[in-house]
Amino acid sequence: MEEFEAARRRPLPLRMRYAFIHTYKPVLDDAPFRAFDSMADYRRWCEANLPAWLGYGRV
Amino acid sequence: MGAFEYRQAEEVRTAFDAYGVRYLFIGKSGAILLGFPDTTQDADLFVENSAENGQALVRALKELGFDLTLEQESEVLRRKDFIQLKNGPFDLDLIFAPDGIERFEDAWQRRVTAEGFPVCHPDDIIASKRAANRVKDRESLPRLEAFRDYWKARQEKP
């Protein structure tokens, strides 16, 4: 709760500066463009191609 | 490629408004716009699935500086369910059919505007993450739900 209150007091540009962080994600970041016919296709692709530790696999 | 910045969010809003693109920020990026203190990498946009909106979207993306080949442009115009763009000034995920949300129009009716940015209602963001059911969603859901409850309580205050 206190954390949410503190965030609320910060202006949006500052919140965004803290929130959006660019870190390299192997495989995922290695192509400039990908398109999937369905979300199910995308989920399957993630499970088949991305390292499990990225957390894109379904529970 | 740097991180997504407020200025770029403004550019998205300006370009999408100029071309009449119907969209909503969704996912953690949407929650962050509403005040959720967490981190993410990409901006996720839920885009209305109509031919007209697809055409407007292509025009807006080009104006923003996304370097779309003809083939890629065609994929956007076909409005594939999930499109990942890393060929522009920032990373963008375009989602035409997010898990857990039946219709764009329903989400649009429930939308929240945060400083001029159209954002999915926190209930829809949570529904989408719950339906996706990935490890990373499961990890973030309890905190996101706590934020949703906090956010709702604040909305109800006179």
Question: What features would you highlight for this structure?
Answer:
heterodimer; A: 59 residues; mainly alpha; 3 helices; elongated; B: 158 residues; alpha+beta; four-stranded mixed sheet; two-stranded antiparallel sheet; 52% helix; globular
What is the total tally of β strands of chain B? 6
By DSSP, the count of extended strands of chain A is 1
Query: Roughly how many Å apart are the termini of chain A?
Result: 28 Å
Tell the overall outline of chain B: globular
Characterize the largest beta sheet of chain A: strand count, sense, and whether it forms a barrel. none
Summarize the helix and strand pattern of chain B as letters.
HEHEHHEEHEEHH
Strand order of the largest sheet of chain B: 1-2-4-3
SSE topology string of chain A: HHEH
Strand content of chain A: 5-15%
Mean pLDDT level of chain B: 96
User: Which structural category fits the helices and strands of chain B?
Assistant: alpha+beta
CA-based gyration radius of chain B: 15 Å
Please give a structural write-up.
The complex is a heterodimer of chains A (59) and B (158). Chain A is mainly α and 59 residues long. Chain A has three helices and one strand. Chain A has helices at residues 2-9, 12-19, 39-49; one strand at residues 33-36. The longest helix of chain A is centred in the last third of the chain and has 11 residues, at 39-49. Chain B is of the alpha+beta class. Helix content of chain B is 52%, strand content 15%. Chain B is built from seven helices and six strands, in the order αβαβααββαββαα. Chain B has helices spanning 6-19, 27-33, 51-64, 70-77, 104-109, 122-132, 135-156, and strands at residues 23-26, 43-47, 82-85, 92-95, 112-114, 117-119. Chain B has a four-stranded mixed sheet with strand order 1-2-4-3. A two-stranded antiparallel sheet of chain B has the order 5-6. In chain B, β3 and β4 (92-95) form a beta hairpin. The radius of gyration of chain B is 15 Å and the shape is globular. At the A-B interface, α1, α2, β1 and α3 of A face α1, α2, α4, β3 and α7 of B.
